[in-house]
Every structure is written in C-alpha cells, then in structure tokens.
Amino acid sequence: MRRPSLYSSSSSARPDRRESDSPDAAVFASPESTAGHPAGPSRISRLLSHLSPHNVYLLWSVVGMLALLLAFSFALSPHQPVRKLTQADINAAVLKTLETNVLPSPAAKAYQTISPSVVRVVGLGKSTGKDKDGKEENERSVGTGVVIIDKGIILTNLHVVQGAETIRITFADGLETTASITGVQPENDLAVLQAHKIPDDMIAATMRSTADLAPGDQVMAVGFPFGIGPSASAGVISGLKRNFRSPEGKQLMTNLIQFDAAANPGNSGGPLVTMDGEVIGIVTAIYNPNEQRTFVGIGFAVPIENAASAAGMPPF
Q: pTM for this structure?
C-alpha cells in the first residue's frame, strides 16, 4: 500500500542548549558511574557528540542485547555467582562499540533517507534534425525534483520545465517516464508535476516545518548539478527570510532560506534537507555578482510550507 505525503512530527521548540554542550552528555550520568568512573562518561560524551540521535538509540539497542545475553548465560550456570550488571559495565560496552564500529556520518544518513525520493527532471524541446520526421527532441533544461506524494507528485522549479515540449523524469531506481505540469506558483518559481509512470516501491519524502530553523543548522542539498548526479553537498543555513532578485531583474522572490551547501545549475528544484533527511525547502537560485551561474557560497531555497502549498497541500 502506498503512503500519502509525510510530515515530520518534529517539535517547533528548539532545545535549550545552555544546560549542556551536548544533548547526549548526560545519557550515562548516574551516581555510580560518576563517582566510581569519572573518566568513562567524558570519553563517551565526546564520541556521542558526533552522533545523531538515531545512532545513539542504535547503541542502546546493542547494550540491551548485551544485557540479555549476560542474563541468559547466568541462567545456564546456576552454580556460579551472579554479578550485578553495573553502570560501568554498560559504559564500557558502549565505549567499545563506539571505538570498534564505524557509524555513518549525519550527512550520509541524510542522503540515504532522501535519495529514493529525488528525481532527475529534463525539459525537452523540438529542433530540426535529420531523422525521417525532420524533427528530434533535444534537452533544453536539466534540473531536479523531489517526490512529495507517492502516487508520483513531484515538486520542482518552474524555470526547469517552463516552455518544454516534453518533460522527462528519471526516478532513483532508473525508471524513466514523462510527466505533466499540474500546478504552478510563479511567484516562488515552483511547478508541480505528475509522473505518468511510477516505481512499484515509490517512496515520498518527509517534509518538516521551518519554524524552528536557525542560522548554523546543518543542511544538505541533493540534485543533478550540470546533470551530474544525484550529488550531495552539505553546509549550514546562512540566514532566513532573505530576498533574491533574478539576474534579469524580472522577478523578486522573498522569504527564502539562504544556505552555503554547494549548488549549481541542475540543482534547481532539488530538496534542501536536514540531517534527518527531511525536506525543509526547494533549491531555487544561486547568487553570483558576476552572473557566471556558478556557486560562490550563497544559495536560496523556497521554504517547504510555500512549496507544498503549490500542490494544494500546506503541511503545517
């Protein structure tokens, strides 16, 4: 059964980071561990500071399995004295796991989450050729899109598909098909596409509110820069509620997310995501004072609230 569009249940309240430099620093704090083994938690805390919450939960699962195995072994040996599993034992097991297992980086996890929902979008036009019909299709624009509903509804940039005779979509599993424009939002350079065929296991992206975003939050842009991809680039949010005027000066866009993850022509229409792989915006423009259409560190994305409303489904 296919899923409808998904919206993250992330809270809009940002955690108070003044109480601790790391949200996981107090995970192993207890009177026994801090009194008897002062060095253990600090080493673990330093390692955990580089992990996402998902990976911390995974480690706790490992610890749970270790505890069950210990209990089982004691049950099989009733004549041996049973030693109580202490906080120090748990700390040592987790520390050993952290030191001997290479866990995916947050950026790698974000890419794994979003990549099944990213598509290549090509606008095709007609040109005079030498085939028997006298015409052939040629690529006039290449961009990116993201599936927001698993029946094949895709968000992209309007400038990627505007004026195209045919729109061709390539899904993450390699399936190629055509698509139709079902909605536009010119003020935000957005278009909604309906794919004519979809993979059997189509996965829609999860969208997340931008209400609690702040400069410095880590983000990733995924797309097809210069047609190469899918390619991932990581960075941070540089600012919010930015304005951008097109190089030709014909359009002013407002309330944009500014970011510094590398984006180039071909990234247009692709998702800007958090380290959880949740979509917070649609990449729409890059700024270059020399108008060379190459990245100099300033990209802009339309917030997902605006983008989803183009499909008639404001999510938050």
A: 0.69
